[in-house]
Give the backbone structure.
Amino acid sequence: MSDHVALMAVFAAFVSVTFAALMRDDPREQLAFGARLFGGFIGAGLLLGWLLYPLPL
Amino acid sequence: MRATAAEHVQSPTNTYLICAVAWLIPGAGHLWQRRTQKGIVFLIALPLMFATGLWLEGRIFPFQIIEPLVALAAIADLGIGLPYFVARMLGAGAGRVVALTYEYGNAFIIVAGLLNMLVVLDAFDIAQGRK
């Protein structure tokens, strides 16, 4: 597996699941919080990726 | 009447034992304190994240005081507990620097250890009746 976006999504999923279980007690709240966190990770990753795209690295 | 968290305060010996078990087996501290759902999530997610890091050819860093960042990564790696020792015994985690996924693997292994440290702190808080 060498797809960078897929690896980022897998990483985000693990971290979101763990943080959701840590920070919320109710399963429905955990699901909502985990989904928000996962979306935030993916969104921030894509945004940063596009912001860095024009830089000559 | 529902029992409050403060009514379930563990003795100091039990608290440290819970923390040790929680570190050694991710999620075991929560399972011990009957937080079954959370315990199962940690028991599955954290070792799986660590194993994914090894599969991605990440490295389990050695303790080298001479290189502070490597030593910090080694401490983070150790945070996962038993899976760390199992991986070391099986000779896994040598890391292949030229692999495309090497840095990803390192991130997975290090973050799995750090997340387990947070889980241990959460188990400690539960044992102290704070949650």
